[in-house]
Amino acid sequence: MEIEVSQPTTIRRSDDEVVAKIRSLEDGIADFFGAVHSDLIETLPFEAASPFLIPEAIADDWSPAGRDDVSVVERIRDYLSFAWDKANDCRGLSAGRSICHMQAWLWLLGEDEAAKQIEDYDLYGKPQLRAISEAVGVDWTSLDNGEWTNDEGSSGSGPDSVAPLKLNFVGALANGAFQAASSEKAA
Description:
By secondary structure, the chain is an all-alpha fold. The chain is built from eight helices and no strands. α1 runs antiparallel to α2, α2 packs parallel to α5 and α4 packs antiparallel against α7. The longest helix is centred in the middle third of the chain and has 20 residues. It is globular and about 50 Å long. The relative contact order is 0.15.
């Protein structure tokens, strides 16, 4: 889903900030799957990323992922279908890793508080996915199977019986620009 932007796109994290965040995750506890670590490394230019890469990595082969708001929101939107599939299929480890990716991308968008808010994993991450989907203008109801459970094989409850997770957006997602642009295209 392509994003139309009426204002200049913003890069909210410097190379130094990204490297510091990566180093803060090196104990492995906060980023058990390594998803945050790898998502952040891939946004760095080769010179900054090279200490975290294998020695055989070649600068000419390196192409960093965009770190600007539009690029990050596009990654979130592109990934949400996969994340919802894992949550719907009660794939605990994969669903948990999906939330880790979302934490990295929210942090890149300057949404530190929202990234922390989604740490409390429940219902295979569906409350978090719903809140993020709404923030980036993705129709989560078309991706959700309607079974919100913590037990594989249990029908659980539906999304209407779960209070929506209210994330405190203060960065790129605070003004609803990405949500509005997507909603207008869908209409």
